[in-house]
C-alpha cells in the first residue's frame, strides 16, 4: 500500500518539480540561473556550518531535571535551590582541545555545562570534570589554549608545546596531575563527576553572604580508561561517549549525579589557609565538608543535534537572584567571554533559539537584530510612563560587597599555605592508590616521550614533578631517561 508523502517545496513553501534534475537548455546544455530551487539548495548548503566552538568543540548533551532535597535557604534565597524544587535542564559534555570530529576518549578535561531553566531565568553552571583549572588569570587563557591546539607551521598537536607552557607555568601542576591521571581519560560521561570549579557568592533572604562550590558526584561511580584502553576506544569509535550517553538514555537507563555544595561563611575567606578564589585550588573536605542537596538526572535525548547541541550557548554570567560572582579572576574573565563568543558564533539573537531561551517570560528592552523571531512592542525605552517593565533595585542588595585597593597587575594575594605544589602533593601522597600512582607515572612518561618533546623540555618536566613529590620526579626521570636541570 503506498503511503501518501508530501510534495517537496522550496524553503518558501513553493512545490518543486524535481529533486533530481537541474533546469538546463536541452538535456546536454548549460544550467539556468532561473532555477531558483537549485540556487537555493546550493546556497543554503554553502552556509550549513556555523563556526565550531573555539574550545570544547566536540560534545554531546541531554535534557534532564535537578531536584533539590535539602533546605539551604539559610545560605541562598535562590528559588532553584528551594527544597522540593524540580528544574528542567540541558547538560552538554565536551572535550576541550579537539575539533568537532575529534575522538571522545583523548586525554583532556571534559566539559560539564548545565543550563537550568529556572523560574527566575536561566542559571548556567559551566564547569568541567575537574574541581580546578590550569591557570588563575584569564590573561593566560588564549596562550594556554593555543599550546593545547595545533602548531602554526605543520598544523599538528605538539606535546613539546604543551609541556613547554605547563613547565613555565607552575600553577598548572595541580590540574596537570589530574589530567595525567586516569581521570584524564574517563570511560564515559556518565562515569565522571562535574564541578562548578569556581567559588560563587550565595546570599540569603536576610542578605547574609556565603562562598560556595558545586560538586556533581556521579551516581554511576567513577570509571576511567587506562591510557591504552583510551587509545583503543578511539581507534574503534571516535564517538564512544556520545553513543554511550545516547544509548543509555534511549533504553531508559537515566544517569544521575548527586549535587553537593561546600559552603564557607563570607568572613572566613579573608584569612583561610588557601586563597579561596584561586581556581588552581580546592577547599579540602575536612575544612568545608560537602553537603548533599539534590539530584541531577538526565532523561531525554535531543532530537536535532545541530539545533539543540551545536547551537546551545552556555554563559557563566547567567546567574539568578541568590547567586553572584566571586572575585575569582578566571570567573570574572569568563563572564565576558561566553556571551561575546555566542554573538560571534551564533548571532545577536542566540538567546531566542529554543535550547537557549528561558522558560519564564522575558521583559527586556533589547530588540531587533539579525534573525529576530519576536520583538518587544511599545514602549521601546525606559524610563517610560506607559506600563513598560521596571527594574527591581532591591535585587542588588544581596550581591554587593566591599572592594578597595590600588589598581595593579599582580598575582593574587598569597594566603598562609598557598603554594602551587601543596595540593597536587596531597593528591599523590594521601589520595592516590599505588595503582593510581603507577598509572600517573606511565601516562606522564608516555605523553612526554612523544618524538617532538625536546631534551631541554624533558629536564624541566622532571623538575616540575620533583616539585610535586620527589618520588614522582624520580620515577618520571627514570622513565624519560633524563635527570632534570
Ligand atoms: P579528601 O581525602 O577529603 O578528598 C580527596 C578527594 O579526592 C576525594 O573525595 C575524591 O573527590 C578525590 N579523589 C579520590 N581519588 C582520586 C583520584 N585517584 N584522582 C583524583 N581525585 C581523587 O582530601 P582533600 O579534600 O583534602 O583533598 C586532597 C586532594 O584531593 C586535593 O589536594 C585534590 O588534589 C584532590 N581532590 C579534592 C577535592 C576536593 O574538593 N576537596 C575534589 C577532587 C580531588 P571526588 O569525590 O570529588 O572525586
Ligand atoms: C567553552 C572561554 C575557562 C568550561 C568555552 C568557549 C569559550 C571559552 C570562548 C566556547 C563557548 C562557545 O562557543 O559556546 C573561556 C575563557 C576561560 C575559560 C576565556 C578563562 C578565562 C574555563 C573554565 C572552565 C570552562 C575554568 C571550567 C571550569 C567550559 C565549558 C565549555 C567552554 C564546559 C563548553 C560549553 C558548552 O558545552 O557549550 N570557554 N573558558 N572554561 N568552557 Fe571555557
From TrEMBL:
It comes from Streptomyces kasugaensis. One of its GO terms (molecular function) is metal ion binding. InterPro entries: Catalase, Catalase_3, Catalase_AS, Catalase_clade1/3, Catalase_core, Catalase_haem_BS, Catalase_immune_responsive, Catalase_sf. The keyword Metal-binding applies. Keywords: Heme, Hydrogen peroxide, Iron, Metal-binding, Oxidoreductase, Peroxidase. This is Catalase. One of its GO terms (biological process) is hydrogen peroxide catabolic process. The keyword Heme applies. It catalyses: 2 H2O2 = O2 + 2 H2O. It comes from the Bacteria. Its cofactor is heme. The active site is at residues 56, 128. Residues 9-390 form the Catalase core domain. It holds the Pfam family Catalase. Belongs to the catalase family.
Amino acid at each position: 500500500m503506498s503511503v501518501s508523502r508530501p510534495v517537496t517545496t522550496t524553503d518558501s513553501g513553493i512545490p518543486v518539480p524535481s529533486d533530481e534534475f537541474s533546469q538546463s537548455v536541452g538535456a546536454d546544455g548549460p544550467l539556468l540561473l532561473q532555477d531558483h530551487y537549485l540556487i537555493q539548495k546550493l546556497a543554503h548548503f554553502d552556509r550549513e556550518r556555523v563556526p565550531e566552538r573555539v574550545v570544547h568543540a566536540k560534545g554531546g548533551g541531554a535534557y534532564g531535571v535537578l531536584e533539590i532535597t535539602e533546605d539551604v535557604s539559610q545560605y541562598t534565597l535562590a528559588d532553584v535551590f528551594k527544597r522540593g524544587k524540580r528544574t528542567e535542564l540541558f547538560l552538554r559534555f565536551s572535550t576541550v582541545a579537539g575539533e568537532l570530529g575529534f575522538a571522545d576518549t583523548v586525554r583532556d578535561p571534559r566539559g560539564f555545562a548545565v543550563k537550568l531553566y529556572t523560574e527566575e531565568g536561566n542559571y548556567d553552571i559551566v564547569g568541567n570534570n575537574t574541581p580546578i583549572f590550569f591557570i588563575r588569570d584569564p590573561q593566560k587563557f588564549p596562550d594556554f589554549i593555543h599550546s593545547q591546539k595545533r602548531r602554526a607551521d605543520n598544523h599538528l598537536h605538539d606535546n613539546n608545546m604543551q609541556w613547554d607552557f605547563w613547565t613555565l607555568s607552575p600553577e598548572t601542576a595541580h590540574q596537570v596531575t589530574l589530567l595525567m591521571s586516569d581521570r584524564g581519560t574517563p570511560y564515559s560521561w556518565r562515569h565522571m563527576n562535574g564541578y562548578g570549579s569556581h567559588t560563587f557568592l550565595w546570599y540569603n533572604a536576610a542578605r547574609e553572604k556565603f562562598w560556595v562550590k558545586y560538586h556533581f558526584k556521579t551516581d554511576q561511580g567513577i570509571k576511567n580508561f587506562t591510557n591504552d584502553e583510551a587509545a583503543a576506544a578511539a581507534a574503534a569509535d571516535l564517538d564512544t561517549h556520545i553513543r554511550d550517553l545516547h544509548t543509555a538514555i534511549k533504553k531508559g537507563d537515566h544517569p544521575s549525579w548527586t549535587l553537593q555544595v561546600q559552603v564557607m561563611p563570607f568572613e572566613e575567606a579573608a584569612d583561610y589557609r588557601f586563597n579561596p578564589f584561586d581556581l588552581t585550588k580546592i577547599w579540602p573536605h575536612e575544612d568545608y565538608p560537602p553537603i548533599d542537596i539534590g539530584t541531577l538526572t538526565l532523561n531525554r535525548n535531543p532530537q536535532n543535534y545541530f539545533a539543540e547541541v551545536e547551537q546551545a550557548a552556555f554563559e557563566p554570567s547567567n546567574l539568578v537572584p541568590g547567586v553572584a560572582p566571586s572575585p575569582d579572576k578566571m570567573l570574572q574573565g569568563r563572564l565576558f567571554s561566553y556571551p561575546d563568543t555566542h554573538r560571534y558564533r551564533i548571532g545577536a539573537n542566540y538567546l531566542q533559539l529554543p535550547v537557549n531561551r528561558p522558560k519564564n517570560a522575558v521583559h527586556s528592552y533589547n530588540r531587533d537584530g539579525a534573525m529576530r523571531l519576536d520583538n518587544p512592542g511599545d514602549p521601546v525605552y525606559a524610563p517610560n510612563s506607559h506600563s513598560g517593565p521596571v527594574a527591581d533595585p532591591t535585587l542588588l542588595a544581596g550581591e554587593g560587597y566591599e572592594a578597595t585597593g590600588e589598581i595593579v597587575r599582580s598575582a593574587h594575594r598569597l594566603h598562609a599555605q598557598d603554594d602551587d605544589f601543596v595540593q597536587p602533593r596531597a593528591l599523590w601522597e594521601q589520595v592516590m592508590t599505588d595503582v593510581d600512582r603507577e598509572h600517573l607515572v606511565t601516562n606522564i612518561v608516555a605523553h612526554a616521550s612523544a618524538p617532538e618533546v625536546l631534551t631541554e623540555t624533558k629536564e624541566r618536566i622532571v623538575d616540575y614533578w620533583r616539585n610535586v613529590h620527589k618520588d614522582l620526579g624520580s620515577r618520571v626521570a627514570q622513565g624519560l631517561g633524563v635527570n632534570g636541570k
